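Researcher: Here's the sequence for the chain we discussed earlier.
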Amino acid sequence: MLVDFIATIAAGAGVACLIFVANHLSRRVRGEKLAKWVMPAGIGLAMIAYSIWNEYSWYPRMRAALPEGVVVAMAPTDRAFYRPWSYAFPIVSRFIAVDTGHAARSTADPQVFAANAVVFQRWQSEKRIPQAFDCGAGARADLMDGAALSEDGKLKGAEWLTEADDPLVRAACSGG
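Model: Thanks. This is the structure I predict for it:
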C-alpha cells in the first residue's frame, strides 16, 4: 500500500513538472501564463487517474504474472460506496487460484492429487491452503489440522466435499 501511495504522489509530481514546463512555454509563445487552477487540477486528475488505473489493472497484471500451472478458480468483483464508479464497473481485488504445477499426484490414481489453493488479495501477502482433489469424483478436501493424502490416494483426517460446480475442483481438474 505504501508503494501505491508513493506511485500516486509520483504521478502527481510528474504532471506538475509537465504543467510547469507548459506554463513556461506558454509564457514564451503566447506571452501569458496558464490559468492558476491548471496546476492543482492537473495534479489532482493525474493522481485520481493513476489510482483508478492501478485498481482496475491489478487483477490483469497479477493474472499475467502467474507461473505456469497456476489456474485461476474464481475472481469475485467488488463494489463500494466510496468508489461509486465500481457499481458500473466492478473491481477485482482478490482471487483464488490452484497451483497444479506443484501437485503431488497419487501413484494409484493420477486423478487424485494434493495441490495448494492460493488466495491473492490486494495489499496482502498470498495465502496457501493445502487441498486434495479427486477429479474422478468431482470432490475436494481441505488438508488442515493433520489431514493428509497418502501416496496411494487415500484421504486421512478429512472428508471429501462434493459441491455442484465447485470452482476449485473445476480449476484443478479441467484448467478453469
